[in-house]
Amino acid sequence: MADKTFPSSTLFHYPILMMLADGNVHNRNELVAFEIEKLSISEADQKVSTPGKNGKKGVNMVASWTSYAIADLKKAEYIAHSGDGYVITNAGKEFLESHKSGFVASELKASKAYREYKRMGEFKNPKDDKPAPFMAAEPISESDSDEPTEEVPTKSPIELLEELSTHINETLENTLLDALKKMSPDSFERLIKELLIKMEICKSEECIELTPYVKDDGVDLYVYDNILKMNVVCCIQVKKYTENAIGLSTVKELGGTLLDKNCKSGMVITTTQFTKGASDYNPSGYNIQKIDGNQLTKLLVSYGLGIKTKKIVINTVDTEYLNSL
Q1: How far is residue 263's CA from residue 265's CA, in Å, rounded to a whole number?
Q2: Which residues contact 215 (CB under 8 A, 6 or more apart)?
Q3: How many CB atoms lie within 10 A of CB 62?
Q4: Residue 89: how many CB atoms within 10 A of its CB?
């Protein structure tokens, strides 16, 4: 690693609850940025990657450990999905209230849901001192206790695969976003054009035009109402940033362009986020959509751009066939 002071993964859970304590929805990128700030992660350590396998490069360490912390907090039922981000639950508020000075991952065992997920304590397989997350827990009998024993429902292989698939997809989006930020600006603009064509935002490929990389008057893509390109129906700005959020001035600039072009619709697409002022701004009579990095990666995955699909064949018993014999 670049720095011996790189924080332990057990410390990544507390900042997430801290940020979500305001009651607002925060996406993954915001949580990663907050981790960096609160854990004082140096610029050098922000670039550290996990060890790669089979000659492949690993994923960003901060993003990876943030993902694991999010997964743990969800399993503990302290946070929950909300739209494109996460919110704190009532249980999470209570836990944070009792851990104002901070906590580490091991303290999540206060949550019964988390203990069940990790097969800890009363949910642990008594035949094995190690947690067995992929095995059905056996009921524990305690002759000296009048408390009823608990038995964890066995999860089917399909349920386990669904959980694993969710984690894989979340990691994929983080890795894809890192790759987008490393693209050259002109290559990134071409990718956005391909995405818009896939999304059928225009009637045909000929109705969307990529402007020259320099001297583009603040517009990277024009969408026209037909192939003759007489009327502009949407002006699009593309911003490939590494860290900086898109501010109000950028969106206002696009608003001015819409006025000049007598166009009612615009779009700003970025690899980072928007400030609150930029998110809230929409001039009267105009529609300016804002797509941040988190939303962009979901769209790319949905339309199969910038990713490769690996298919896994799962065989199941064909009882219908067997019963027909």
Answers
A1: 6
A2: none
A3: 23
A4: 17
